[in-house]
C-alpha cells in the first residue's frame, strides 16, 4: 500500500504540468496534496473526479490560499477537517482520513513568515503544530496506526537543507521550529525517510530561482511521520525529486497492506 504526499503549489497549475499522468502512474492507494489553492468547484472535472479515484477537498476561506486534497482508491471511512480552533480551521490545512485501522493525516503546516517575511507567523505555526499534536496524542499512546503526511514547513536538522549555516535565522530552520519537530520525535513519532536513509543531499523543496533545483540546493520539509503502530508496517520510504510540476516533489511510504 503506497501513500504519497505532494505540495503541488496550486493544483490547477500542476494539472497543466502533467498531474493526471503522474497520478495514474504513481502506483499509490492514497495521494495527499497540499497547497491546492482552489475550491473543489474551481477544479476541472477531470481533476476533481478522475476515474477510479475517490476525492475529498478542504479549502481555505481566503481565495487562492492553502487548501488540501485527498485522492484515494477506496472511499475513506471518515474524514475530519477541523481542529476546533476557528483561526486554524479557516485556512483549510487538515484532512484526517480513516481507512480501516489506518489514519492518514494530510497536513499543510503553516509557514512562519508573515507578508513581509518578518517571522510574525511563527507563533501561529507553533500553535498549529501543538494543537495537532494534542489531537493525535491519544491514538499515538494507544498504539494506533497513524501517518502524518505533508509539508511541515520545517527542516529538522543540518542534514535536511543544503545551506544550514546561512539559514539559522530563516523561518523553517529556526531553533523553536526545529525543537517542535524534536518534541514529536521524542514522543514516539518516526521520521520514516530518516529511518531508511541516513545520508544527506535528499531534499523535497527548492527555491524557484534559476538553477537552484538543478544544483540541488534544497530543503527537506515534506515528511511522512509514522506512529510506532504504523511504522511496524512501513517497508520503505522515498523522496521523488525527478517529479516536476511544483517547487516541491512528492514523498512516499510503502506499507504492508495488512496495516488496514
Automatic annotation (TrEMBL):
SUPFAM superfamilies: DNase I-like. Probably binds two magnesium or manganese ions per subunit. Its EC number is 3.1.11.2. The record marks 222 as: Important for catalytic activity. Residues 4-248 form the Endonuclease/exonuclease/phosphatase domain. Its cofactor is Mg(2+); Mn(2+). The record marks 248 as: Interaction with DNA substrate. Keywords: Hydrolase, Magnesium, Manganese, Metal-binding. This is Exodeoxyribonuclease III. It comes from Myxococcus llanfairpwllgwyngyllgogerychwyrndrobwllllantysiliogogogochensis. The gene is xth.
